[in-house]
Amino acid sequence: MKTTAVFFGSTTGNTETIAKQIAVKLNADIYNVADNPIDKIADYQNLILGTSTWGVGDLQDDWDNFLPKLAKTDLTGKTIALFGLGDGASYSDSFVDGIGTIYQSILYNGCKITGFVDTDGYGYEASKAEMNGKFIGLPLDEDNESILTNERVDKWVEQLKAEFN
Ligand SMILES: Cc1cc2nc3c(=O)[nH]c(=O)nc-3n(C[C@H](O)[C@H](O)[C@H](O)COP(=O)(O)O)c2cc1C
Q1: Ligand 1, residues 11, 49, 51, 53: which to mutate, most atoms within 8 A of Cβ?
Q2: Full set of structural domains in the chain with CATH
Q3: Could you say which DSSP state residue 33 is in?
Q4: Per-block mean pLDDT, blocks of 10 residues, the chain (165 long)
Q5: Which atom of ligand 1 is nearest to the CA of 127?
Q6: DSSP state of 111
């Protein structure tokens, strides 16, 4: 049985593409939150949650239905890592805020949140995904820094292999 699953929401496909890459690298199952896979959460020890950010700092649309359900789910014993797609140039004051929104919603549900990343090298001004000088998940910027995406994903996947159970 696989122990890890990726859950993503994506509007134009960027987060979906990355979710698929991460799932392949970790031999993980993958679910689109648009399909409401809430009953699948219980099946996995390790969860990777991915969202893009829309509006000004808003969660990706499909997460609007799914996140309230996840927030009511007991996540005791699970290890969770977050990633998010954003645009640090056009939306520099709300860069990958969606990561921060998911983090706040599951913080007290008994899970361990892992996969924090250095803010060095990212172009942005402010982010709800930043806490104590670190990102609380992996930000990716396909609009401005796509050349760095593969390297960032590979490094993060190696980090998760060490941090996941
Ligand atoms: C209208 C609009 C609003 C956006 N708002 C934000 C934002 O507030 N913060 C951010 O980091 N990125 C923002 N973005 C950038 C998207 O999150 C980014 O293009 C992302 O790669 C889209 O991923 P998806 O195709 O998986 O939905 C916005 C993009 C558009 C077109």
Answers
A1: 53
A2: 4-163 (3.40.50.360)
A3: G
A4: 90 98 97 98 97 98 98 96 98 98 97 98 98 97 98 98 91
A5: 11
A6: P
